[in-house]
Amino acid sequence: MINHIAVIGGGTMGRGIAYTAALSGFEVTLQDISEEATEKARDTIENLLNKNVAKGYVEVVQAEEAKKNLSYTTQLQEAVCKTDLVIEAALEIMELKINIFKQLDEFVPAHAILATNTSTMSPSEIAASTKRPDQCLAMHFFNPVHRMKLIEIIRGLDTSDSTVEIVKQVAEKMGKETIEVNEFPGFVTSRMNCLIGNEAMNMLMEGVASVEDIDKALKLGLNHPMGPLELADLVGLDSRLRNMEYLYHHLGEKYRPSPILVKYVKAGRLGRKSGRGFYNHNNK
């Protein structure tokens, strides 16, 4: 039974996962190596709780209970030494994830499940750095976590059926729907999303249409809730580039990153996080 969840990484996804888990009744410890990041995570989560109380989405009692469920630390061992489930939400860099999982394997209890929130990378390769590959998998959440209903559950080569079932129960308690994916680079959603976004960037580069009109076409013509360029800004263009490079390396030419994406990242135009990407977010 999962009572305590440790979330590793205090960025956008880590904060969102911690918020959702705490509001769903789990005890949650959020860890980041940076004290600044943990403080920002605390402020962001508490502000979101307060805002959703004001809007009537969350009861006051629920919000107060969620705050009690949350703790924050910069120490990895402290965060995970008594946990039942770890959800790693670090950057999409394989070497970083492997290094974290090696440490987790040493620090967590024997029964604990280790999950990575990767959107493209191999849970089998990450799990191979541990002595418990049967208790490892990928849980791919979507941004913003508290609104998006789906979690992709990706089996590694050795992931056990019981591990998958336990994680499905956790997802259900969080109010999420799940799909089960057999590992392949990019899983289901990222492969499709990266292709659509990359083609939108190529069309922009070729002068086919403006940023606004490309996004409008997919929202009104194909009923997408958000345009592909708008979504790329939300995800972060640096994150999208890392995903594209990984898929290009493993799946070939159709995933070659658009030159305009590479250029924007080199120029520091990373989307919402930097204030400017395909859109100027400083004016919003």
UniProtKB/TrEMBL annotation:
Superkingdom of source: Bacteria
Marked site (Important for catalytic activity) residue numbers: 140
Assigned keywords, A-Z: NAD, Oxidoreductase
PANTHER family named in the record: 3-HYDROXYACYL-COA DEHYDROGENASE FAMILY PROTEIN, 3-HYDROXYBUTYRYL-COA DEHYDROGENASE
EC number: 1.1.1.157
UniProt GO molecular function: 3-hydroxybutyryl-CoA dehydrogenase activity; NAD+ binding
GO biological process, one term: fatty acid beta-oxidation
Source organism of the structure: Viridibacillus arvi
Domain 3-hydroxyacyl-CoA dehydrogenase NAD binding: from-to ranges: 4-183
UniProt similarity note: Belongs to the 3-hydroxyacyl-CoA dehydrogenase family.
Domain 3-hydroxyacyl-CoA dehydrogenase C-terminal: 186-280
The protein's annotated pathway: Lipid metabolism; butanoate metabolism
Protein name: 3-hydroxybutyryl-CoA dehydrogenase
Binding positions for NAD(+) per the UniProt entry: 9-14, 32, 92, 97, 119, 143, 273
Pfam family, one: 3HCDH
InterPro entries per UniProt: 3-OHacyl-CoA_DH, 3-OHacyl-CoA_DH_NAD-bd, 3HC_DH_C, 6-PGluconate_DH-like_C_sf, 6PGD_dom2, NAD(P)-bd_dom_sf
SUPFAM superfamilies: 6-phosphogluconate dehydrogenase C-terminal domain-like, NAD(P)-binding Rossmann-fold domains
Enzymatic class: oxidoreductase
